[in-house]
Amino acid sequence: MIEALKQLVAIPSVTGAPAEPGMPYGKAVHDALEKALQLCSDLGFRTKKVGDFLGYAEIGQGEELMGILAHLDVVPPGNGWDHDPFGGEVAGDAIYGRGVVDDKGPAVAAMYAMKDILDAGKPLNKRVRLIFGCQEEEGDWDDMEYYKEHEEIPSFGFTPDADFPATYGEKGIMMVSVSMDAAASGFKEISGGTAANMVADHAKAVLSDGTVLEEQGKSAHGSMPEQGENAITKLMEKAAEMDCPFAKFYMDKIGWTLDGSKFGAGLCDEASGKLTFSVGKIAIENDRVVMKVDIRYPVTFEQEDVLRPMKAAAAEWGASVESEMWMKPVYMDEHGPVIEKLMEAYREVTGDSTPASVMGGGTYARAMDNIVAFGPVFPGRECTEHKPNECILIEDLEKAREIYRLAIEKLACE
Questions:
Q1: N or C, which terminus of the chain has less Cβ within 10 Å?
Q2: pLDDT tens-digit profile of 102-150?
């Protein structure tokens, strides 16, 4: 299992690469898909490449189909690594590399859980299909749309791309562009961040008077901005002291808050908690300073509940707000049969009674009905996805493999 993961991590399948002939998401993502399918074929699974967009591996028999939705694309490595982000290095009791948590590691754990079932001769009365998506991190999920147009849709299943024990709800997701005319902004040049859904770990700017500012921060997943240190905010704080208009707007309406409250969007509900607000990128585009913001809003609210107050607040400073991407919330029955079986498997392996939860992250659970997020991060573990030195304990990967095996048996054998 670890050797297979090393092979996948070594392929730098960073999301958003330019398309090439027969490779809509670039050569590296294409190579990762080919490698994953080859690994599964070598293990005795039935495999299929679905167009050039994604692929799957399948075991079992029966009319009904259970799906396990994973993805092979990764966010950019960013800065601050002590290990090669594409080295798959085992150091101490953990394996390091971009994707070992999100989502190559869990994909391989599910792959080997399926192998364990085959090796044990466990009879399945349903087919189990491990689907390898290729553009989960950035884009419109046209890989999943292509799959749904051309292939059988699972009746139920899980995506190993979040936390244990199980996730029955996901906040709404918006990627929002906040912009101002560059000539009025106070910046001659500005750049920062590497991806909209990552806390910016670097920022650099030249003010209108020629002053150069540069800041370093700490990256984290955009849904958990409290775990990072935003370099753009650090830079804006200094620029605002120098009377830079855009920076003064930034500190007035964003500052160090992470819940959208200064921007008028401080929403909260009992089911899923507070909205999260994370500035991921900034640049000058088409003579405007453009900032990309990752917003995760509570499940009981609508998109306009976020946009309306933000647009009004931005207008006070001569700025504009536009939604560039939106995914509606997911909210399911916490006591439904799929989550109940997943929770049984988790508790039998771990003995932990932590309840299922709602999260801010966005997973392929949104792509199909009756899919829920399930692992691989255990309660109490630091979540290192989208961060420098992304890593997972080998013990946790092995435990996830055991949980996934038992979950598959409960859902596809009984």
A1: C
A2: 999 999 999 999 999 999 998 999 999 999 999 999 867 999 999 999 9
3-state secondary structure of 109: helix
Backbone angles phi, psi at 175, to 5 degrees: -105, 115
Can you give the C-alpha Rg of the chain in angstroms? 22
User: Do 234 and 217 touch, CB atoms closer than 8 A?
Assistant: yes
Q: Is the pLDDT reported for residue 10 higher than 90?
A: yes
Q: Would you list the DSSP string of 392-408?
A: EEHHHHHHHHHHHHHHH
Q: How far apart are CA 116 and CA 112, in angstroms?
A: 6
Secondary structure of residue 382 in the 3-state scheme: coil
Residues marked active site are found at 73, 137
> pLDDT band at residue 383, thresholds of 50, 70 and 90?
confident
Instruction: Tell me how far apart the alpha carbons of residues 8 and 313 are, in angstroms, rounded to a whole number.
Output: 45
Q: How many CB atoms lie within 10 A of CB 288?
A: 18
Give the range among 315-319, 334-338, 360-364 with minimum mean pLDDT: 360-364
Token couple for 298: 């509570």
Asked whether the beta carbons of 104 and 8 are under 8 A apart, the reply is: yes
Query: In terms of CATH architecture, what is 2-170+330-412?
Result: 3-Layer(aba) Sandwich (3.40)
**Is 375 within 8 Å of 160 (Cβ atoms)?**
yes
DSSP 166-225: -EEEE-EEEEEEEEEEHHHHTEEEEEE-S-TTB---EEEEEETTS-EEEEE-B--BTT-G
Band (pLDDT 50/70/90 cuts) for residue 362 is: confident
Q: How far apart are CA 364 and CA 350, in angstroms?
A: 25
Q: What are the boundaries of each domain within the chain?
A: 2-170+330-412, 176-327
Element (H, E) at 280: strand 276-285
d(CA 332, CA 321): 31
- Distances in whole angstroms, Cα of residue 169 to Cα of each of 165, 329, 357, 385: 13, 7, 7, 20
The top-scoring range by mean pLDDT among 75-84, 244-253, 330-339 is 244-253
Q: Is the dihedral of CA 249, 76, 136, 296 positive or negative?
A: negative
